[in-house]
Structure formats: C-alpha cells, structure tokens
Amino acid sequence: MRSFQHSIMLLLSIFSCTSMPRQKNIPTATPQNKQVIIFDLTNVLIKENQIGFAKKIGYGRLANYAITHWKSPGYRCLDMLAEMSKHEIQKPHITITLQSRVMPRCLVELQEGKKNCEETKKEIAQAVELLDSHRFFGSTKEKKLMIDIMDLVLDPQTIASIIEPNKATVQLAQKLKKAGHPLYLCANAPEELYATAHGKFPDILQLFDGVVISSHVKIVKPDEAIFHHLLDTHNLDPAECILIDDLQASAKTAENLGIQAIVFDKTSRVTKKLKKWGIKI
Fold first, then answer.
1. Within 13 A of 11's CA, how many CA atoms are on the CB side?
2. How confident is the model at residue 54 (pLDDT cuts 50, 70, 90)?
3. Residue 149 pLDDT exceeds 60
4. What is the C-alpha to C-alpha distance for residues 82 and 76, in angstroms, rounded to an integer?
5. 241-245 vs 36-39, strand pairing mode
6. Which tens digits make up the pLDDT trace of 220-279?
C-alpha cells in the first residue's frame, strides 16, 4: 500500500525528491548561541496511516485494480495530476513537484490559500473529464478510482482519521526544545488541513516558537519569499538556522539564503547529521 503515501502527500504538503543535497558551511552550535531548528510538517512531524487510507478505498478494490492495471494507483494518480498541469487552465504559476511530477494550478492555489478543498475538488473533477475526453484513462474503473482518491485526500475529515505523529521526529523536536534550541515550523499546508492537524496534535504544534503556514501567508515553498517571511517576522539570522524539510527544492532555496538544510528521509539520519554539526541532543 506504500503507493498511497504519494496521494495523501498532496493534501498537506507537496514534495519532490528524497536525495540529500550537498552540505556547506557546517554550523557550530554554542551554549550562548543555540541553533534555530526549522521543521517541515507533513512526512516530517506527521505522517499518514497507510493501512487506514487503504481501508477507505477498499482492499478488494485495490487488489482488483492491481490485477487489471499495470501501474499502481498512487503513481497513476500522480501521472493524472501531472497531465492536468499541461493544459492551459491548470498550468501552475509556481512549479511544485511530487515524485518529479508537476502539480496542477488548483493544487498550488490550495496550498497558497487561494482555494479551499471543495473548490479544488470541483476543478479536479472538471480536469478529469477533459482527460477522459482525450482517452487518458485505461478504463472507466481507473477513472472512478482516481476521482475517489482525490476526493479522499481533499476531505479534512478523512485526513483527520488517517494522520498520526511521526513519533521519532516529535521526540527529536522535544529533545531539541529541552536543550534550549528555538523551534519554528514552516510548511506548505491548505488552511482546512492545517486546522485538522492543529486540532488533532495541539501538543506537537505547541513546541514551536513560531509557525509559518503557506495558506496563511499566501506563499508556498520552495519560493524564497516564505523563508524571508519567517526570518523577518521572527528576527532570525539565517546563519544560525537549520531547516529539516523533505523537499529538496526547499532545502536548496534555504541554502541559497544562508540557512543550513537537511533533506528528511529518516529521523535517525537527521539526528546523526545534527550531532555531526555539534548539536547536542
């Protein structure tokens, strides 16, 4: 069921690569000058319960699709969204990628807070009909499954039922907080879905000294403007900051601004890198 991880990501934050960027200018933390740690949200602090999402779709339905179609439904859904982004009405004004696929304009605007989930669902449904007229789908069954996936990942109640803390990363944040490091959250998230996460995990979000959410400030990562907003609003020195984000493009933007960055894949690797940089955990 791992392919469904990629469809659920669309909701709270859009991501691209998983490889680690080259690190530069290794920072040194001192007791007098604690490094500021900036966390991403989705797939870093919270994650989907893959079994829960599969149950929503139906195991039998998934098994039947796997037998009759050559590509997993999660990746096929990403292909569908990438194809939408090629049409004039859904060409994005900012490039956000997920597994190297460009996402359509409506999903970018959802992250920017310019659209809500229902409006985005309607645009997705219209785009699906356009793709169907161009014979994009291999079958009526496939088309229906793609629609149902998008309806689920754009439903705040569904998301509330299938997201859970990434316990290892939350524990890391708690240890960093206890050690005296200022913590900040900077994430791409639609307003409705951030509200869902906030309501479900208030203890996690209370760890942070400041929060910047894309739909609140109308700017999405990897646009450098969202990092400028974070730095300026909270009077942070980029040379004293470390970003933990699972989007390589965001890490690159941060590094261009003088912020050290770690591309998240496993908490253990992040911890190892922080210790290498002199962060005592």
1. 33
2. low
3. yes
4. 10
5. parallel
6. 999 999 999 999 999 999 999 999 999 899 999 999 999 999 999 999 999 999 999 999
Alpha helices in the chain, H assignment, sequence order: 4-12, 50-57, 59-68, 73-84, 105-112, 117-133, 140-153, 156-162, 167-178, 191-200, 202-205, 214-217, 224-233, 248-256, 267-276
d(CA 36, CA 233): 14
Are 136 and 127 spatial neighbours (Cβ–Cβ below 8 Å)?
no
Q: Which residue has the tokens 């933990």?
A: 244
State the residue for tokens 């791409």. Answer: 188
Instruction: State whether residue 36 is helix, strand or coil.
Output: strand
pLDDT of residue 112: 96
Q: Are 55 and 44 in contact (CB under 8 A)?
A: no
Domains and CATH numbers, the chain: 14-47+165-276 (3.40.50.1000), 50-161 (no CATH)
Distance between CA 8 and CA 101 in Å, rounded?
15
> 73-100 pLDDT, tens per residue?
778 899 999 999 999 999 999 888 888 8
Neighbours of 168 (CB within 10 A): 12
Cα 195 to chain centroid distance, Å, stands at 15
